[in-house]
Amino acid sequence: MLDCSVVSTSRTPLRDSEDPEEPEGFETPENPPEDQESELARVRQELQRARERIAALQRANSATPAPETFREPKVNKPAEFSGKLSEYSTFISQCLLIFSMCPISYAHDEQKVLFVISYLAGTPRSWARSILDDQNHPYRKNFAEFKRALDAMYADRNLKQRAKDKLGHLEQTKSVASYSAEFQQTIAPLNLDDDSKQSMFYKGLSSGIKKALIYFSPAKTFDELLEQCVSLDQRQYALRQEEKFAEKSSKPHPKSSGNSSNNSKKPGPPNHSQSGSTPKYKQPSQSDGPYEPLSEDERKHRRENNLCFRCGLSEHRIGGCPLSKGRVPNRPAKASNAQTSNAAQAPEYSSPSFPQENWPSQVTMRLVP
Q1: Region of residue 198 (phi > 0: left; psi between -120 and 50: alpha; otherwise: beta)
Q2: Exposure string for 24-59, b = 16+ CB within 10 A, e = fewer
Q3: What is the tens place of the pLDDT at every residue in 96-105?
Q4: Whole domain around residue 316: which residue ranges?
Q5: How many structural domains does the chain have?
Q6: What is the CATH number of the domain that holds 218?
Q7: Average pLDDT of span 170-195
């Protein structure tokens, strides 16, 4: 084994003249420790003041947006309530709506109470007069108690019973959407559960919607049933419109010629000057007897067309009319031989000289000797 001797080595202390060299840039502080602490505190204070100044400058330079001003919406005011029970529900619901939409204007209960009183009239206003007169009235600053007192006087306590009666007879007569709106308005005061809503709603549906619901899975909620029924009703309506349009388009339309609209004219009085033909007026019979008087229209027509006032022909004037001379043109021979012999023996008559349009209907003829 090797014997190892412990050799103790010790550093020889350095002498004052043998101090190690100090690194470059190191300066021995001249101040004692107390001066260092005070200097450090002073620096810290200056640093804090600098930070505060920087923060102030940042706040001054940053453009802070102006705070948004809340503008309350305009809500319709309620109608005056004069004590009619059927109008109280609408009146108080409109007041509550105003309080919800304008929370700044009606932030306190006293403002709400005074607003409701301002729209009371008749008996309700007389009841609320004591609240206006007494500043310490218990209802003046307690809107909940004030509303409870109004409800006790004017709330419809038979509302639920009327809703039940109406719901028992409610049926779909128009669209499902209209039926749904009326149904939900009716059940509002009844507090029905979801299953009862589905049962009562299905009961009032039309047979067409009920048949169509067979092909759908049963709805789990009332909203799901409502969605199915509205969708089916709208599809059926679209199908009916399509079938109606197809039926109209399949019908044959009458063909009209292009000139039919131009040639078709409204009936009017006949224009004899253009046609050149005399109208079919009733002309006097060609006989030896007296003639009927002419109408105003016939006289006007003959005057305008230069026609004879006796026979209605245009070949001559009334002075040369053969009827006025006793000669009847183209008169067929009607008398037999016996009548001819009798006519030869009969005395001769001459036609009276009356105006042509004023022949008397009944004239007593006298014998000319």
Answers
A1: alpha
A2: eeeeeeeeeeeeeeeeeeeeeeeeeeeeeeeeeeee
A3: 999 999 988 8
A4: 292-326
A5: 3
A6: 1.10.1200
A7: 91
CA 88 – CA 363 distance, rounded (Å): 94
Q: Per DSSP, which regions of the chain are E strands?
A: none
124: exposed, middle or buried (C-beta count within 10 Å: 0-12, 13-18, 19+)?
Answer: buried
Does the structure show a pLDDT above 70 at 230? yes
* pTM given for the model: 0.42
Instruction: Examine the domain organization and report whether 169 and 241 are in the same domain.
Output: yes
- C-alpha triplet 87, 91, 92: angle, nearest 5°: 120
Q: Which residue's structure tokens are 């509550």?
A: 96
Alpha-carbon span 52 to 59, nearest angstrom: 11
Beta partners for residue 120, in sequence order? 81
Measure Cα distances from 214 to 9, 177, 228 in Å. Answer: 109, 20, 11
Residue 180 in domain = yes
Whether 201 contacts 222, CB under 8 Å:
yes
Q: How many Å apart are CA 8 and CA 348, to the nearest integer? A: 204
